[in-house]
Structure formats: C-alpha cells, structure tokens
Amino acid sequence: MAARHAAVHLDFGTGDGAFALRRARSEPSTLVIGVDASAEGLREPSRRAAGKPARGGLGNAMFGVLPLERAPGELIGLVDSLTVLLPWGSLLRAVALPEAEGWRGCAGCASRGVAADRIRLRSRRSAGSASAARIAGGGRAAALVQAYARAGFTVTARATSREEVGSLPTTWAKKLAYSNSEREFVALTGVAR
C-alpha cells in the first residue's frame, strides 16, 4: 500500500534536485516532486531518493522530466505548493515577466489556493537582454505584483540579497550568488486565488 501524504510540493526547474531532497527530508509527510526540462541532472537525485531509508533514501521524493512547454502534464491540479528557484531560459521568462502562456503551464500543476511559496528571480544587468531589463528597475516589484494579479495570483515581491540567495540549499544558488557577475534578485511569495 502506498504511503499517503498530507501535501504535495512541486519544485519546478529543480536542476540537480538538492532543494527537493532537502525539503523531502525536512517534511516527511509531504510528497516532494522535482521536475526539470533536462533528464541529465535528475539521475543522481532520483538514485538517492530511491535508496534504502537506512542509506538516506526518501520515499516521499520523486523526480521527472517536465519541460515548461509540456506542463502541467500529468500533474494538472495535483500540487499544494510550488517553488521555482533561480530559473533560466523559458522558465525565467515565464515567471519573471510573467509570460502568460508559460506561467499557465507551471501554475496549471496547482490546485486552487496553491501557495507559490518561493520564487527567486535573477537578472544580470550587464546582459542587456529583454528579460533582464524587464526584471530590473525600481518599479519592477510593483509591476510583478500587478502581472501576477492578472494571472490569478496574489503575490508580494521584494529585492533579495546575494547572501540570502547564497543560503538557499541549491548548487545553482551558490554559483549565482558568489559569481563576479552583477546580478539582481527578486523574491516572490504568493497564493492562487
């Protein structure tokens, strides 16, 4: 008989799965699902989660390939909470602008009232890209709050320090926070209406 979980958490764009594994370990009654567009990074966390509990295996963690373009896929309406930590590419555009079509795919995994409990966005000012330019700027937090409201989410947005980003339990966070590139980070927290 499969274990029942009090909640389902989705880490979208999970990368190497470090955050998902840590969350599963700290919340044993929550099923934590890490998805990413690339299967390569998911092999090791999948192996670790599938191990025997005495060797660090976690029966409440699972990983799968789910590019944003195919979301929500089989996860439609199943998720209680969602994290998107330091996205890039199409996922960054979807959550940073937010790009309606892409964000709908990500948010489509969520049940009504889902908590988007942590979204960390990054921008590189020197990159000169349209995404970076639209993330940066004094009015960006207010613009994000309004854009998410139009998408059916009530969010708060605030600037985040490199130190706070560096403390996130992900490999990617350490690389971004301590690189020499000039970056700005924005944290969003919210809930679907």
Descriptors:
8 helices, 30% strand, alpha/beta
Write the layout of secondary structure elements.
Elements: E1 7-12, H1 18-26, E2 30-36, H2 43-50, E3 61-65, E4 79-85, H3 89-96, H4 100-107, E5 110-124, H5 130-135, H6 140-150, E6 153-160, H7 162-166, H8 171-177, E7 183-192
Parallel strand pairs: 1-2, 1-4, 2-3, 4-5
Antiparallel strand pairs: 5-7, 6-7
Number of contiguous helices: 8
β-sheet strand percentage? 25-35%
Major beta-sheet overview: 7 strands, mixed
Q: For this structure, what is the CATH class? A: Alpha Beta
- CATH superfamily membership, which one? Vaccinia Virus protein VP39
- Helix fraction? 25-40%
Radius of gyration: 16 Å
What sort of overall outline do the alpha carbons produce when their principal axes are compared? globular
Q: Strand tally, please?
A: 7
If you had to describe this structure to a student in words, what would you say it looks like?
The chain is an alpha/beta fold. Helix content is 32%, strand content 30%. The protein has a single domain, classed as Vaccinia Virus protein VP39 (Rossmann fold, 3-Layer(aba) Sandwich), CATH 3.40.50.150. The protein has eight helices and seven strands; from the N terminus they run E-H-E-H-E-E-H-H-E-H-H-E-H-H-E. It has a seven-stranded mixed β-sheet with strand order 3-2-1-4-5-7-6, sandwiched between helices. The chain is globular. The protein starts with 6 loop residues before the first strand and ends with a strand.
